Please model this.
Amino acid sequence: MSGTPSWVVIVTAITPVAAGLGGYWLSGRNDDARDQRTAAREEAARLAARGERRDDRRHEFQRTTLLELQDELQRQARVSGRALIHDRSMVREHGQLTLLPEGLSDEAYTIGVSIRRLQERVLDEQVRNAVADFKLFCDSMDARVVFWKEMQPDEIIADIDAQAQELSRRFNDLMTIFGTALRDELDR
Model:
């Protein structure tokens, strides 16, 4: 060792310590970076899972809403049909219109409120518009009584029959739109 310069001895003694410390420092930085990447991936996975759960709940809510609304629309069609049958029967038997049977108007009102509430929950604009059109048609049938007062019994019966056919056609068209919307929700 006497011929070795002192700086070589110092460098030789310090190099392993410096290399160890440098390696330790670099390893720590790499571990921190790896931990940050892992945390970012886990956070992204949590957000994705939360988004999927939210989407699943939204689709389930839409599916349930569409099914409930479809049931209410069927009830609306039946109530409107019963009103037409009653009016036709009264005109045929008595030659004039009479009041609807007790409870039918209240049932129609309750169904209308339920339809409106459910309609606002539907995200699909085409479905909302189709429901609004159908409901407007059903409501307009009630208003036809004003026109029937000026008509003869045979004309009233013919108009009631035409309204019943139109009600059936519109309801079938509406159920086609609902079928498409429900299948879309189930496919998601």
Notes: Helices lie at 6-94, 104-119, 125-143, 145-148, 153-187. The domain at 57-187 is CATH 1.20.120 (Four Helix Bundle (Hemerythrin (Met), subunit A)).
